[in-house]
Specification:
Strand order of the largest sheet: 6-11-10-9-8-7
Oligomer: single chain
Mean pLDDT: 84
Order of helices and strands: HHHHHEHEHHEHEHEEHEEEHHEHEHHH
Low-confidence stretches: 1-8, 79-84, 92-103
Radius of gyration: 23 Å
Distance between the termini: 48 Å
Shape: globular
Number of strands: 11
Length: about 425
């Protein structure tokens, strides 16, 4: 048994100090719910820093443990079942790979360290979840931390599974490797929309948290509503009490959506044009000319995260034009949208249709696309058949779906994208060009 080292250093109050400095300088408004969330974030920061030296020793031991995992081979029976496919094993109730993180990490010969309970912030769009989490992230003074959007996180996990050895349980090794390098994971927009992600999430977080990674996440929904209405949801439901056990759950819900309080820009190009008519087409063409400094189009092939290519048919000088059908009706997804947003500072989407649950796949793609536009601070211009207040049909009868809640966030972000503050922000493309 390795002795537990105690390091008595206290960092409590640092996040609140930063928040109050911003309030006192009139950069943000004081919000009671945000202040209450910051008390919890300060608690996490305090505990991470207090036990950081202890965790550094642990991570060295975990590195050796990972090498042992790589050298282990599955039994003949496990190898036979592996041939059925990793995802098949998940659907069969994890007969091949246990739902309890394969092998309980407590049984591994690793030193014991003080556990740090994470935090799960949920609430309506625009209440300040991401803002307060990012303030916390910048305040935590360790290098072994990562802040990532949920969509990109899941793409990374799928990529690691794809390249894993066919004779191993990939989840345990992937989770251990990430936990070794990442003491703190800040995950923005925690959401579950398909069964594969639902089952992978359950096992990957059981493994990473089991190996002492601390999770701080934001979401529009409480844990009990994650993957609501999803296929075979009963396989995901056991993860919910585990998430509550490992993370303090805090409701940040507010009647205020701060994205609606951003200021407009005098003389700024209209970013949202409706209805679709000849005038809208002319305005979109003029926007392209002003942003691209040319009326010419060129075709461009961009590399997607998985190593494949995506063809952009109309683009020039960092500006691209797409139709609604190209974004929402084709077989495209998060990886394509991330690649697009990293290759352009401005995107125009023409002929956006009303978004509803009749075509859930199109609605899901639109949500994912706007998420990545927002995350990469791309300047977005839209022509749509309905005005922004009537673009989304959110409430439907019968079973509710995650996409319905995500549409509220999507609308909120579309409004913020029209603001002066957003227009002045540097896009991912701009930052990469400056480096």
């Amino acid at each position: 048994m390795h002795p537990i080292k105690i390091q008595l250093r206290f960092y409590f109050g640092l996040v609140k100090d930063q928040y109050m400095n911003l309030v006192n300088s009139n950069q943000i408004k004081n919000d009671p719910r945000q202040q209450s969330a910051i008390i919890e974030l300060d608690r996490v920061n305090n505990e991470i820093m207090q036990y950081h030296a202890q965790w550094l020793d642990y991570s060295k031991e975990l590195d050796l443990h990972i090498e042992q995992l790589k050298s282990k081979k599955l039994t003949n029976t496990q190898q036979f079942k592996k041939q059925e496919g990793f995802f098949n094993s998940l659907f069969k109730g994890s007969q091949t790979f246990s739902s309890q993180a394969s092998v309980k990490v407590q049984e591994d010969s690793l030193p014991q360290i003080q556990k740090v309970k994470g935090l799960y912030l949920f609430g309506s769009p625009g209440c300040g979840k991401t803002y307060t989490m990012d303030l916390f992230y910048e305040t935590v003074k360790i290098t072994q931390k990562k802040r990532i959007h949920f969509n990109e996180f899941m793409l990374d996990i799928h990529k690691d599974i794809h390249i894993s050895d066919a004779k191993e349980d990939p989840i345990k090794r992937i989770g251990a490797t990430r936990a070794k390098d990442t003491r703190l994971l800040c995950l923005d927009e925690f959401q579950v929309t398909d069964i594969a992600d639902a089952l992978i999430l359950k096992r990957i977080f059981e493994t990473m948290i089991g190996y002492n990674m601390v999770l701080v996440a934001t979401s529009n929904r409480p844990p009990e509503d994650l993957y609501k209405g999803g296929l075979q949801r009963h396989l995901f439901v056991p993860f919910i009490p585990y998430l509550r056990q490992q993370c303090q759950v805090f409701d940040m819900d507010s009647d205020v959506d701060y994205r609606y309080h951003h200021s407009a820009v005098p003389g700024q190009l209209r970013t949202y044009i409706s209805p679709i008519d000849e005038n809208a087409e002319q305005q979109m063409d003029e926007i392209y000319f002003k942003r691209a400094k040319t009326r010419k189009f060129e075709q461009k092939s961009i590399q997607v995260l998985e190593g494949r290519d995506y063809i952009v048919h109309k683009q020039n000088n960092g500006v691209a034009i797409f139709t609604y059908d190209e974004i929402c009706e084709q077989v495209v997804g998060s990886s394509d949208f991330i690649a697009i947003c990293r290759n352009f500072h401005t995107i125009l989407i023409k002929n956006v249709k009303q978004i509803n649950m009749v075509n859930r796949n199109a609605a899901r793609r639109f949500i994912l696309f706007i998420d990545e536009v927002y995350n990469h601070k791309v300047k977005l211009f839209i022509s749509a058949e309905r005005d922004i207040n009537n673009l989304f049909v959110i409430k439907t009868s019968g079973e509710s779906y995650d996409e319905e809640f995500a549409l509220e966030r999507c609308k909120s972000r579309l409004i913020e994208i029209q603001s002066h503050e957003y227009a002045q922000s540097l896009s991912y493309y701009d930052i990469e060009q400056e480096q």
